[in-house]
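hey m, so remember when u said the tokens were messed up on ur end? i reran from scratch. heres the input so u can diff it against urs
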Amino acid sequence: MARQSLLPVELVVAATAGLLAAGCIEEAAPAAPAAPGATAARPVLVQRVAFEERVPSRTFVGTVRPRIESDLGFRVQGKIEKRLVNVGDVVKAGQPLASLDEIDLRLQTEQAEAERAAATASLAQAEADLRRAATLAGQGWTAASTLDRQKAAAEEARGRLLRAERALMLARNAASYAVLAADADGVVTATMIEPGQVVAPGQAAIRLARTAEKEAVIAIPESLVGQARAGAATVGLWSDPKARLRARLRELAPTADAATRTYLARFSLPDADERVQLGMTATVTLTGATAERIMRIPLAALFNQGTGPSVWAVDDEGRLRLRPVTVAAYEAQDALVTAGLAEGERIVRLGVQKLDAALRVRVVDALRF
């Protein structure tokens, strides 16, 4: 009786063990191999390349200076009576800047006038004597040698009068030099004289900067000397960031500075107006003479196996092709490529070191990444 009651339980246990064993066998069974050519394509991040204009430019800080800045001085010796201008004054051509004490100059002029009057009287007397001698010689009352002496005396008197007239002109010019006048429109940048000071001829008295022509002065390194000569230049002002002025290289120092090893360059500003004041800070931008067409690609897209830089190009069917490229320059994040790629071609941006030409890839556009 007890034997019969245990049979159903044993059957249930046996059945459960069989089912568990069958499940374990199914889980441990390996997956069936995939069919050839049905492997999943590897996704790659790509971007389309396009040519753009590359105009290399460099910016330098300089100052606005006058093209002509000269030291004016008196042409005669004397004592300074008045100084009529101060530093920073704007003056016009012909405006008096300073004057000398004119007492001695007036005395010299009066002396020259007296000498001319004496020479005029001597000439009149000599010519009268010559006429009388000629009359007497014609009548036979005097010798020919006497007539010759009178002619020589008359010529000497004429020379003395001419010398006196030239001396009077010089004295009058010297008197006019007692006033120092501006020779052009400009700004007074320095004064080296004070009233009561005695100055010599040619001594610097007033420094005048002409405002008719202005220029920007900068120092450039020797690597950009050629670009400064052949390229274009524009000038901006710190006081007016919107201002952009044309500039033309006027002068380039023939030798480099011994301390900085830079060359001093002067750029004329033909369009300078009232906004451009002397001494202002200016920024001079130098650009290349011709624009170069380049493609800008990420540095991570470059692949180099020792034969030069290359990139992986992807066609419409997802095939990879290794394309050698020519790199013109390297920047912080990009490489500038000039040859090796076509307009609109797609290249892989990331993970190029893990790719192979036999791989099939799936394109992921960089714009949707």
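this time it looks ok to me. Residues 103-176 form one domain. if urs says something different then somethings off w ur setup not the seq
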